Amino acid sequence: MRTLIMIAAAAENNALGKDNDLLWHLPDDFKRFKKLTSGHKIIMGRKTYESFPKPLPNRTHIIITRDKEYCTEYNECIVVHSLDEAIDLVKNEIAFIIGGGEIYKQGEKKSDKIELTRVHGVFEDADTFFPEIDEDYWMLTTQEFHPVDEKHDLSFTYLTYVKKDDALKNL
User: Fold this and answer.
1) For 1-113, which CATH superfamily applies?
2) Start and end of every DHFR domain (predicted)?
3) Tens-place pLDDT, residues 48-98
4) Nearest CA to 145 among 28, 33, 25?
5) DSSP of 5-52, one letter per residue?
6) How confident is the model over 9-20, as a mean pLDDT?
7) Domains of the chain by residue range
8) Global pTM?
């Protein structure tokens, strides 16, 4: 069975980034992202893909772009032209939607789970945002707070959401 998970780090105002870059540096969140996504397919928009210096190791990258001529030199990358086309490539496995803002908007109702790192801060100058989580549709199942420390200038909380229908079936 396929499991489609949106994974992101978003500020309290849902800010994700600016100029195709993150607004913070959270090493523990990077480690968590790597642990969760390694060995799986990751779905992203072209701009998110191009924000990496090279493909992330041990993951198949599915890049969504409207550009029919777009290609990449890396074998671990597959180029598609819609989110539905990307989802068709992840039957019977776990896959992660990793951004950007427009791909998250399209993926919210198609996803089974959200792994959100809520960064405790507001970033007014952001140009990319995570969609507002619809509490009628999603249920918060776990949360884990991470305080400011010597490696992290901001506190944050790991939040896991599942579709309410799925959560209620398992009660």
Assistant:
1) Dihydrofolate Reductase, subunit A (3.40.430.10)
2) 3-163
3) 999 999 999 999 999 999 999 999 999 889 999 999 999 999 988 999 999
4) 28
5) EEEEEEETT-EEEETTEES---HHHHHHHHHHHTTSEEEEEHHHHHTS
6) 96
7) 1-113
8) 0.93
